[in-house]
Amino acid sequence: MGGAVTEAACIAGPRGVCVGRCIPHIPIIVRCVTDRGVGESGAADLARSVVHLCTGAAGGAGRAGRRAHLAAREAGLLSAFAFADGEAEAPDDVLLHPIAAEDPAEAALATVLRDRVQWGVLQTARSDATNTLFSIAHPGLALDRQALVAAADILHLHWTSWLVPPAVMQRWLAQGRAVVWTLHDLWPMTGGCHYPGGCDQYRTTCLQCPQLRDAWSLVPNAFAEKRAAWSGPGPLIVAPSRWMAARAAESAILGGCRITVIPNPIDITAFAPRADRAALRAAFGIGPDDLLLVLGAYDNRERRKGGAVLIDALRRLHEDGRLAAALPAGARVALAGFGKSSLPGWDGLSTLAFGEVSDDAVLADILGAADLACIPSLEDNYPNIALEALACGTPCLVTPVGGLVEMVREGTSGVVAAAADAGALAEALLRFVARHHGDADLRATARAQVEAENALPVIGAQLAALYESIAPPPHVTAPDATAHARALRAFGQAPVAVSARPAAPFLRFPTNLLLRQEGGPAVATIEAPPVDAPVPGTRLLALHARHIHHGARSGPYQFLRHLPEDITADIRATPLGAGLAGVRAAEYQAWGKLLGAVPFGQQGNAWLAEAELLAACAAVPADVVHAVDGELALWLLPRLPATLFAGGRRPAMAATFHQPAALLSGMVNRHLLGRLDAVILLCEAQRTAIPAAIDPARIHVLPHGIDADFFTPGPRAAGPGFRLLAVGHWLRDYPAVFAALTLLRQAGLDVSLRVISPNPPAGAPPGTIIEAGLTDEALRQAYRNADALLLPLENATANNAILEAMACGRPVVSTDVGGVAEMTAGAARLVPRGHARALADVVLGLAADPAAAEALGRAARVRAEALDWRRIATLHGALYAALAEGRA
């Protein structure tokens, strides 16, 4: 932070900034002392001006942003709160007035991005993984041309989807502007999700989003745009919780930024204990012995907020009678709810539905009257309701997720459930009633905690010190408060243009096709923004196919997340088929025939992708072009002369082939393989499909990998009998599976079979469970619950399902075909192809000898760890470096 740091609640990140890991017990109050000698009052002496920017004034982030602004005011700073959605409520509020871009094409693009993409494509493509908002950054506002922003010393961002486009942020940082960004969720470090729902791709790169069926690559392109715009050196990141600071520190986008922890503030005069609490409860119809719980969120339908989980816990306690028994005789349980959508109730649970509450005094009355505020979140950062409740002297019940355990301390400011599930919440409720119901001391310590850690003066001092550590020298004489207030009134009348020109990474294939398709001729006239200059190191252009059955942790391109730091990867994806080609699909097929591509390689989408790769290579020099699905791509670029590439230098061309030799021969033009600089195979068995004329030095065997951090051994759900699992459809020998199952039952084994496949096999015996569409987490649990994976194959080079089961420590029974033996390396039981009796015998042996089955599972896990994607990425990185050196 430029000097000594004392009492810092910061964890030392990649650039020496604290984010919480280095100090075992981190104080909540932060006071920074820098080389400039500025302490707690230095910022006020200089009368720095700061503008807090938030898309809207309502919602959790808007309320927190306004309070941060008030805290800055409390510290003597000249602060303003600017937003584009909401109503100006105070003299220092600045309601931004968007106006359409002057360029008709940009105005048309803004409409497409807002109406067709954000509220059209994204909504229809959402999966059922979560219902939390998912957003792109566009269109935003040209805030770098807004007078208020231009005049401020400090720009403090809050929730900025559709407000601050990445290009604007990039310009601010290039100009040396002092930018602070408080993380109210994870959106600044993801490809579009605000909460990842268990996905950790933000640590590397967002390639296959579990929340979105992303045929247009909106997510990876948005991720790439953010990374180019505000990864280090980027803005100074403020995390309200140490949990959020740790997420930022481990992210690929924000990990290089300065990160510090400053909690959100609260106005402890507006939110305070009610002196007439008993009378207020009586007015609500609540008796002195009744248990009044309160639950509220901006929208109670948002699943991550956990409202349904709390209702489940209350229903369980109602049905078993334990909560009623713990309360005084005649006492009732009541649930007060506020926010969008009402909460369900039933006979025996009184409900008070307050709806959407915008008046802080009303909200403080509700919270102050309650015995316990319930925050049963499945994911959360630093929710306002916890601060508001604690400030009113009302303890909280929280789940042990996110920053909640930093806000609520067991027995001091509330109770913490053992887990984020209904059973744990029920037990925590009973613990509260037994130990704390009516406990005035607990209410007092809850209030005292907030007074010490979150009051406006406390947080204002921390923000002032932080601002001073990054503020540039004043370029004008500091105005007084009266002049600043008059300027705010003037700024509040100024319009700001809509900015709808995404940076180059967002406009990569096939997002660019989507915008042209939705926007028509007007959008098509917009010139593409310039591509960033190449950076030192090896520049890789990678193209992979998007298969609908690949999850966030599966697919042959996963190694691209873990490449060495000296390799800059520009990753593109293309859906299978010819849907992107539209009416020209037949033309592309004809061109494919003319160029000698076999029918599989004539997909119109693939030809469009290759044309986009050519455009990218013509704009900025590339060292290596890698088609991760070689059966589908690189039939055009290797033919082209060097003069078509940037600098007249043709990049090295590499392609990976996945299909067994028998199929590969019919899926590629053997003559065209000779034009590649590197032919990458997954196993030695594929070599028979490669023409003898190709230089053996150009052939490389790099095995398929597995995400061994995600697919891990874990707890198994109880179940009867011996449980078999089969996964997938391509080249699976399901007749052998079903025949073996029949033999096992005839042998008297109590056995069951679960099949997970997007294309359910025909002829399944009665009692077979067939499923599809599982989340990655559900699939992992399916492996853990199985006693063995039974997956005979017709042919294979490598196999995701086998590797996933091995990584989960499960015994694998399969067939000795193709590269299966090479992949499993003795850590699986393999039998001849089509031999149902041999399959059954192996399964019977495992069922009869649990110790042998357990040993096989341990060996499988060891082998899977040897094939972790990080190791596979290292192999690829070495090959890329060699190919680039050969082109130098």
Description:
With 888 residues, the chain is an alpha/beta fold. The protein is built from 29 helices and 30 strands. The protein has four domains: 51-258 and 493-498, no CATH class; 277-446, Glycogen Phosphorylase B (Rossmann fold); 533-701, 3-Layer(aba) Sandwich (Rossmann fold), CATH 3.40.50; 722-867, 3-Layer(aba) Sandwich (Rossmann fold). The strands form six sheets. Strands 5-4-3-8-9-10-11 form a seven-stranded parallel sheet. A six-stranded parallel sheet has the order 14-13-12-15-16-17, sandwiched between helices. A six-stranded parallel sheet has the order 20-19-21-22-23-24. Helix 12 (384-391) links the parallel strand 15 and strand 16. Helix 2 (59-74) crosses helix 16 (456-470).
Amount of helix:
25-40%
Strand adjacency order, main sheet: 5-4-3-8-9-10-11
Low-confidence stretches: 1-45
Q: Mean pLDDT, as a whole number?
A: 90
Determine the N-to-C terminus distance: 40 Å
Number of domains: 4
| SSE class | alpha/beta
Overall body shape: globular
- The fraction of residues in strands falls at 15-25%
Largest sheet: 7 strands, parallel
| Tally of separate helices | 29
| Cα gyration radius (Å) | 30 Å
Task: Compile the SSE list and pairings.
Layout: E1 5-6, E2 31-32, H1 42-46, E3 49-56, H2 59-74, E4 78-85, E5 93-95, E6 97-99, H3 104-124, E7 140-141, H4 147-151, E8 154-157, H5 166-174, E9 178-182, H6 218-230, E10 236-239, H7 242-250, E11 259-261, H8 277-283, E12 291-299, H9 307-320, H10 322-326, E13 333-340, E14 350-353, H11 360-369, E15 372-375, H12 384-391, E16 396-398, H13 404-407, E17 414-416, H14 422-436, H15 440-453, H16 456-470, H17 481-491, E18 495-499, H18 511-524, E19 538-546, E20 567-575, H19 585-595, H20 604-619, E21 624-627, E22 652-657, H21 661-667, H22 670-673, E23 678-681, E24 699-701, E25 722-727, H23 734-746, E26 751-756, E27 769-771, H24 776-785, E28 788-791, H25 800-807, E29 812-815, H26 820-824, E30 829-831, H27 836-848, H28 850-866, H29 869-887
Parallel strand pairs: 3-4, 3-8, 4-5, 6-18, 8-9, 9-10, 10-11, 12-13, 12-15, 13-14, 15-16, 16-17, 19-20, 19-21, 21-22, 22-23, 23-24, 25-26, 25-28, 26-27, 28-29, 29-30
Antiparallel strand pairs: 1-2, 7-18
Helix pairs in contact: 2-16, 3-18, 5-6, 9-14, 23-27, 25-28
Protein name: Glycosyltransferase subfamily 4-like N-terminal domain-containing protein
Organism: Neoroseomonas lacus
GO molecular function: glycosyltransferase activity
